[in-house]
Amino acid sequence: MPAHTAPGRLNATDRRHQLLEAALDFFSRKGFEGTTTKEIAAAAGVTEAIVFRHFLSKQALYQAVLDHCHGSSKTQKFLAAIRACMLRKDDLALFRYIFSAVLRSFREDPRMERLLLFAALEGHEQGLAHVREVSNPIYELLREYILGRQSEGKLRNIAPSLILIAISGMAKQYAMLTQMFGYPADMPDENVADAMTAILMAGIQTQPPRARTRARK
After folding, report:
1. pLDDT by residue (tens digit) across 70-105?
2. Are 79 and 151 in contact (CB under 8 A)?
């Protein structure tokens, strides 16, 4: 017969997940320095000893939260989608997907973004190193693609880093205003992504040569 967990008790996997969620709540509201393992334990309804049974230290718990939020399956799904656009050389679809992904991440759960903002404010190297580890390979992939499209004459010769900053800047600023600061969202996210993509493409896409008009006699 399969083993059953006693009522009110969680198995090790579920308990770990519960602690990660509780820790994410606190780290996103109070930062690493302002959060204690004691209050995380209390929020999860366990003793502090239980926290340390699953995580050797507060730093280990913090790293596990980062890994939990940036799981490999999420990253792989994102990479597969942008690579498909790159293979088709569909600039519009590529940049629109990135806009939509950023807006969706804030809409679904802005806690990770709050946590990373705290990491920057606190100068918490563990959090900042995680950001670089996750984002740098994606940045390089997009940078090489943009350089290739520029060499083909399809995109204007603008520093790829600035193009990528423009994408993340527009999307994250809008998401922060509407999801964190309470500004009203006047249109669906998909419409926002369409508008942002149009603004970006108007600035970076090379213009096709205009057809010459015959001079009037």
Report:
1. 776 788 899 999 999 999 999 999 999 999 999 999
2. no
Helices 125-151 and 72-88 pack at an angle, to 10 degrees, of 10
The dihedral through the CA atoms of 187, 111, 116, 138 has a sign that is negative
Alpha carbon distance 10, 17 (integer Å): 10
Question: How far apart (Å, rounded) are the C-alpha atoms in residues 207 and 70?
Answer: 38
Tell me the C-alpha distance between 11 and 4, whole Å. Answer: 9
User: How many Å apart are CA 93 and CA 197, to the nearest integer?
Assistant: 9
In order of start, what are the domains of the chain with their CATH numbers?
12-68 (1.10.10.60), 70-204 (1.10.357.10)
pLDDT at residue 5 is higher than 80 = no
Rg, Å, the chain Cα set: 22
Q: What is the pLDDT of residue 70?
A: 78
Within 10 angstroms of residue 60's Cβ, the number of other Cβ atoms is 12
Distance CA 21, CA 73 (A): 18
